[in-house]
Amino acid sequence: MSQDSPNQGPQLREHVYDGIQEYDQKLPNWWLFTWYITMVWFVIAWVAYYQFGVGMSDEKNIQRAMDNIAEVQKQELEQINDDKLWEMSRDEKIVAAGAATYNTTCVACHAADLSAHLAGAKLPGLPLNDQEWKHGGNPTQILTVVRKGSPDITKGMPPWEPQLGLQRVVEVVAYVLSKHEKGEPITLAGDSPLKAK
Ligand code: HEC
Fold first, then answer.
1. Whole-model pTM?
2. Structural domains of the chain, with CATH
């Protein structure tokens, strides 16, 4: 049997290790061709992907998917209504997240108990635990003030959406609403701009 003919069937190699011997067998053509095609394909893919920028990287794909999710979430938040906000205000998780934001961002002007008073002294903000609202007491009206700030910027209530993002603004409003009951009477403050309308 000739050693160099590939078609003579498996050849037992002379090499022995731990009593184990190996066959030297030509790989079947279907296997070899799959291997060659893989190599050719690698070159094509490498040139296309890295040299010509064909196709999107995983990073870009993930980024695009994330952007889509963020966009859908934003749209959902944009379409938020009073009922939805009331619902969120009874959701423990959302309220807890809102409380955390409140206690870092709002507490200085509105006080931890939402009274806008600290040890008898009046803080810059308006009380958020009473039924009197200057800019309207419907959940979406409260949301608008927190998102966009007071219509009169000189009053000292800045817009929070640019800093916190809509998600956290919604949560903090849910927290404020958690201190209120749906259907409780709402009065407008004496100097409310809504009164004039
Ligand atoms: C720098 C002080 C300051 C901070 C911080 C602040 N506010 Fe205010 N807030 C005000 C002032 C002042 C007003 C009254 C604005 C006006 O008279 O138009 C106000 C008004 C409001 C109103 C409207 C009240 C009403 O009667 O209609 C809401 C709601 C409110 N703030 C929520 C928040 C929330 C939530 C945060 C935290 C994200 C926050 N504020 C942070 C100062 C502040």
1. 0.73
2. 11-51 (no CATH), 69-196 (1.10.760.10)
